Amino acid sequence: MSRSALRVIEVSGSPFERGRQYGTAAEDLITRSIGYYSEALAAQTGLTWDQLRAKARGWLELCTSTAPDLMQEVEGLAAGSGRDVLDIMVLNVRGEIIYDAGATPPAPVPEERDDVDGCTTFVLTDGAAGDGHMYVGQNWDWRYGTQETAVILRVVQDPLPTVIMQAEAGQIGRQGANSAGIALNANGLGGRFGGGVGLPQTFIRRLVLNQAELPDALNVLFRTKPHIASNAVLSHASGFAIDVETTPSRNGWMYPQDGLLVHGNHYQAFIPPQLAESYRPVSVDSLFRVPQAQRGLEKVRSAASTEEARKLIRTAMSDHLGFPESVCTHPDTRRPASRQWSTILSSCVDLTTGEYLVTNGTPCDHSYELMPWNVFDGPGSAHESMTAPSLMEITE
Predict the structure, then answer these.
(1) Cα separation of 294 and 312, whole Å?
(2) What pLDDT shows up at residue 118?
């Protein structure tokens, strides 16, 4: 597929102004995204766009009380793109709406995989890359019809860390890294939990990326009740990484083994008690995507240069075992257009140098492109904090 250039957007100012700038710069993509989800979600859930907007209204109070600045960004997004706030909210809670629709008759139950963002996430640290760098990233797999609405967004929000992230146009959070050296990669897990309204994933993920300190970022994941289960890989430029499987009830976690961590769309750290008796992965291809990506990424340990390390990462994330639902996912033409999946983009963030690289589509046929900003440019730069004097030096 021939693709137009990836939309790269930078915003700054007050929360409302940041949202307004974003909405203006992505107005056409937001309109396209709303058009796509109007049809796709109607086919999947049986709900009209007005009914989807009514569903999204149910999150306004919680989002406003928990993250008022982000809701101001949503209001600015609506103003800048000429849409209603509820239109923007649907784009930010689309996963939660799909989850609820699958559990609420008489809407048709969606195919299980469509409940989650199917992604393969990785961390290379502690010598797992031969060039000595720390790499984090993922293949972001989602519906093929949204491929043209992906954006790379840089949010300058002094005194908070500056954030670089990839998202669907109109979303205020997904996955990325910040100037304090904190990175977040995420993928869906599935499972039915109930228990009332929880915070949407777009808000949780942005709240993580807004943190300047690692404990605060972890606290977002452990103290915030999500509406749906999701896996979060939290990394720090110091070399630390942890995988947290978050659910509305409790979390599980694990760490890299020999510097390598790979996560897909099944529970790998624990199986929640509510699911234990009848658990089945929402995406069975996750069961081979994870070991395939691990096998490929192990080779990065032997890289003699940064160029070779990044080439080996791209090769690993281009694996086609199980094609088309492979590590590098391609549309399955046997399915209706609205149910076809693809790797929207592959990200590779160098937390040693601060370089942020993405492929504009599937990594097998698109090279990593260097984004025009360095992750560490902004308040609370990780490079500054890691070169600060130690406590012993201060007290001597």
Answers:
(1) 12
(2) 76
